[in-house]
Every structure is written in structure tokens, then in C-alpha cells.
């Protein structure tokens, strides 16, 4: 039954994506950019509704009050495709740095270009990266929110973190707050898997790290804050979803936390 619901969700999810993109295409490009952004935001809400109705997965967001009013960098954990669209309805005017190849995909690339996403050649250096930084700076001055996954790619829940120092360079050069976001959607929508699991989990938006720190100090602070919050949410997800199949990395991490800091488990359950 679970496999059937998972496959049903996957079919409806991608059909819903195609339907939104095709149906809205005639009007999307005639709208002002910020008005046009309502279309992907509403699509994201429809995806959350589908997860709830078809799979039985729900979530809650903690810490919305920590989101700054002006331009900032949002730095979420990245475990699932879900992470790429989940927070869109709660963000004012977000912008992503995308691989240039994605901008060449028909329809999707047109949508991304309309929203002024920032393309980057990942193999590029020097002048290429200077242009990306210039575009990012311009968007920040316009009050937009730059979404960066600090680990660069999807990682299994509980896996040893591998953060990329690039976010520290952005923090230094853009001089805007960085808002870490802890989430374990990968427990319910695993990477490289067609399975989708029912349950409930939390997204925790942490207090912003204000500009002005040395890049190395910022980098250490980001990792410490985000990993500490992620550990607590992992324990919480495992405790409140006892039937959830956990990946081996999550099992190992929970066991390590219970061995070395059993009080954290007790505190998290209060």
C-alpha cells in the first residue's frame, strides 16, 4: 500500500508540475516578475497539499520570525528535491544560483529566466565567478533572498556534513545576514528513491548570522548552529515517527547522539 501511494504521488506530482507550467505559460511572461512569482509559489502549496492527501506527510515551520526584512542569504540543509521548492510560499522574492545547463531546458529555463535566476558555469573561474557575484550583489540590493545549499548537493539525513566554503565567500562579499535552516525532509522524501513516507516533521529557521564576522569564524558558526539544530530535529523526527524507516546514516547518528549526549534526547522529548 505504501509503495502504491508513493508511486501514485510521483505520477501526480510530475503531472501537476507539467500542467502548471503549460497552462500558465501564456500569461506568465506578460506579468511583472514579482506578480509572476505567485505562480510557482502557488504550485509549491499545491505540492504540499498533495503530500498531505496522497502520502500523509505534513510539516510545520518554526522560526519564521527570524527571517530578516531586507536582503539575506537563506542556507538550508539539502536532502531532497522537496527542499528546492518547499519554502517558496513563505519567502518574498527568492533567487537561486543555477547550473547554466538548467537554464537551457525548454519551459523550465524560460520560467527561471523570467524570475531572474543566476546561471553559473560550475567549471568557470575568475571572470565567470566575478559576474555571478555581481549579479548576486545586484539582487541583494533589490531586497531579494539568495538561496544557497551550503553543502552543495543532497546528503542523506544524519550523514557527516560536508560544507563548501563558497558560502563564506558570499557572506564576506555580499555583507548580508545568513539564515540557517534545519530540516529532515529527506527522511520522508529520500534522495534517489521513489518511496515517499507518511509522518510529520519540523523545519527550523534559525536566528540570522549577521554580517561582519571573519569568513572562517562565520563558517564555523554556521556549521555548529546548523548541525546542532539538525541533530535535535533528527531525534525529534525519529521519536514522533516510530514506524519511519531510517537510512543507515540517520541510525548511526542517532546512536552516536544517544551514546555521547543522552541528555539531548531527553531534552528534545520534553
Automatic annotation (TrEMBL):
Q: List membrane-spanning regions.
A: 12-31
Which residue numbers delimit the Phospholipid/glycerol acyltransferase domain? 72-186
| Protein keywords | Acyltransferase, Membrane, Transferase, Transmembrane, Transmembrane helix
- Which GO MF terms does the UniProt record name? 1-acylglycerol-3-phosphate O-acyltransferase activity
Q: Name one GO biological process term.
A: phosphatidic acid biosynthetic process
**Pathway terms, separated by semicolons:** Lipid metabolism
Q: Which PANTHER family match?
A: 1-ACYL-SN-GLYCEROL-3-PHOSPHATE ACYLTRANSFERASE
What name has this protein been given in UniProt?
Acyl-phosphate glycerol 3-phosphate acyltransferase
Organism (species)? Rhizobium oryziradicis
The top of its lineage is: Bacteria, Pseudomonadati, Pseudomonadota, Alphaproteobacteria, Hyphomicrobiales
Amino acid at each position: 500500500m505504501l509503495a502504491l501511494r508513493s508511486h501514485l504521488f510521483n505520477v501526480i506530482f510530475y503531472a501537476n508540475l507539467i500542467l502548471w507550467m503549460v497552462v500558465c505559460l501564456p500569461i506568465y511572461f506578460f506579468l511583472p516578475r514579482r506578480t509572476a512569482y505567485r505562480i510557482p509559489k502557488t504550485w509549491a502549496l499545491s505540492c504540499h497539499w498533495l503530500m498531505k492527501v496522497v502520502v500523509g506527510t505534513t510539516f510545520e515551520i518554526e522560526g519564521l520570525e527570524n527571517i530578516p526584512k531586507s536582503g539575506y542569504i537563506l542556507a538550508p540543509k539539502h536532502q531532497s528535491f522537496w527542499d528546492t521548492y518547499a519554502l517558496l510560499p513563505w519567502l518574498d522574492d527568492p533567487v537561486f544560483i543555477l547550473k547554466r545547463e538548467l537554464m537551457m531546458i525548454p519551459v523550465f529555463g524560460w520560467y527561471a529566466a523570467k524570475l531572474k535566476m543566476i546561471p553559473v558555469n560550475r567549471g568557470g573561474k575568475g571572470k565567470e565567478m566575478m559576474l555571478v557575484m555581481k549579479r548576486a550583489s545586484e539582487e541583494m540590493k533589490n531586497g531579494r533572498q539568495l538561496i544557497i545549499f551550503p553543502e552543495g548537493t543532497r546528503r542523506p539525513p544524519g550523514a557527516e556534513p560536508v560544507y563548501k566554503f563558497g558560502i563564506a565567500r558570499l557572506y564576506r562579499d555580499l555583507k548580508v545576514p545568513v539564515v540557517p535552516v534545519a530540516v529532515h525532509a529527506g527522511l520522508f522524501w529520500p534522495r534517489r528513491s521513489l518511496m515517499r513516507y507518511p509522518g510529520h516533521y519540523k523545519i527550523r529557521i534559525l536566528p540570522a548570522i549577521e554580517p561582519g564576522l571573519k569568513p572562517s569564524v562565520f563558517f564555523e558558526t554556521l556549521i555548529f548552529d546548523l548541525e546542532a539544530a539538525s541533530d535535535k530535529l533528527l531525534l525529534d523526527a525519529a521519536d514522533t515517527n516510530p514506524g519511519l524507516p531510517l537510512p543507515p546514516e540517520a541510525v548511526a547518528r542517532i546512536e552516536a547522539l544517544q551514546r555521547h549526549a543522552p541528555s539531548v534526547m531527553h531534552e528534545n522529548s520534553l
